């Protein structure tokens, strides 16, 4: 089943809603930069590739909005390094 990306601007996070659980990626936006600060997947959903699916959809949304990513979360930093097709989104000073 396809998980629908929810942009929860009030709580500054991107979310999936899966059977009462809310995997999420928290962010802080400043100008054209979006600092991805934390990825959280409830234990009941771990090991199903949900964090990667969520991050792919978040990165696509960021690309569409023409923002630049500052990956502060270790998971996100490692994911981008393993998937260099997303490196163009990373903010370079």
Provide a descriptive summary of the structure in words.
The protein has 93 residues and is of the alpha+beta class. 26% of the residues lie in helices and 27% in strands. The chain has a five-stranded mixed β-sheet with strand order 1-2-3-4-5. A hairpin with a 2-residue loop joins strand 3 (24-30) and strand 4. The longest helix is centred in the middle third of the chain and has 15 residues, at 50-64. The protein is globular. The model has no long low-confidence stretch (mean pLDDT 97).
Q: Using only CA atoms, what is the Rg?
A: 13 Å
Q: Kindly state the mean pLDDT as a whole number?
A: 97
- Strand order of the biggest β-sheet: 1-2-3-4-5
Our estimate of the beta-strand percent is 25-35%
Oligomer: single chain
Q: What keyword list fits this structure?
A:
93 residues, alpha+beta, 5-stranded mixed sheet
Give a short summary of the structure:
The chain is of the alpha+beta class and 93 residues long. The protein has helices at residues 50-64, 74-82, and strands spanning 6-8, 13-15, 24-30, 33-40, 68-71.
